[in-house]
Amino acid sequence: MKKRSLLIVSACMLLFISLNAQETNFKFGIKGGGNYAKYTVDLTSTGMDPSEFKRKIGFYFGGFVGIKVNEKIKIQPEVLFALQGAKILTEGIELRGGPNEIPIAGDFEANIDESIIIAPIAMQYFFTENFYMEAGPQFGYIINIKENIKENPFEEFGVNNTTIYFLSDYNKLDFELLIGAGYKLSNNLGLNSRFLFGLTERGDSMKASVFNLGIEYTL
Predict the structure, then answer these.
(1) Residue 218: enclosing H or E segment and its boundaries?
(2) Angle in degrees, CA 14, 136, 202, rounded to 5
(3) Of 51, 69, 125, 141, most Cβ neighbours within 10 A?
(4) Bridge partner list, 142
């Protein structure tokens, strides 16, 4: 209930500001870029070592509406599609078929690919005409999560089913907070970078952590 209330309050505050701005201008645009994402986990809750979760490269693209409140403040709601997730790497696994057999050592490596529709609402403050910093909430809906296994030492023993436990029962709704900065190269073209940290869990105490960098083009 607390998380749901926070979502509603955040959305209402941003909507109130935009509707009551004295000089409001709307500009539409498109954006896209790359992201560098992973999951953060709690060892005591998941039993998984946080160091086994590595970042993986993905991408995002979509559109936005730039709402000018005044010369210093702008609000930018967006709707984006993103492919993100995490890489899982467990090194030095020792397996043996029996107590008297020589152990087989190997690494387990898999990519977790997450397809998600995200809706950030960024409040931007312009320190100069071109440079700004931003912050705000981001809402998301996870379309799909799947595992792509790269290396699997368990196959030596005929075990192919090593699906990560949370993939079959995960929370499709996502809520994150974003902080970032951007620079306008011209009236139409700009650079934008963000860090997003998740507040909702994929599985037990497993949350998203995402860096992204991209370009924006105002139509």
Answers:
(1) strand 207-218
(2) 120
(3) 69
(4) 116
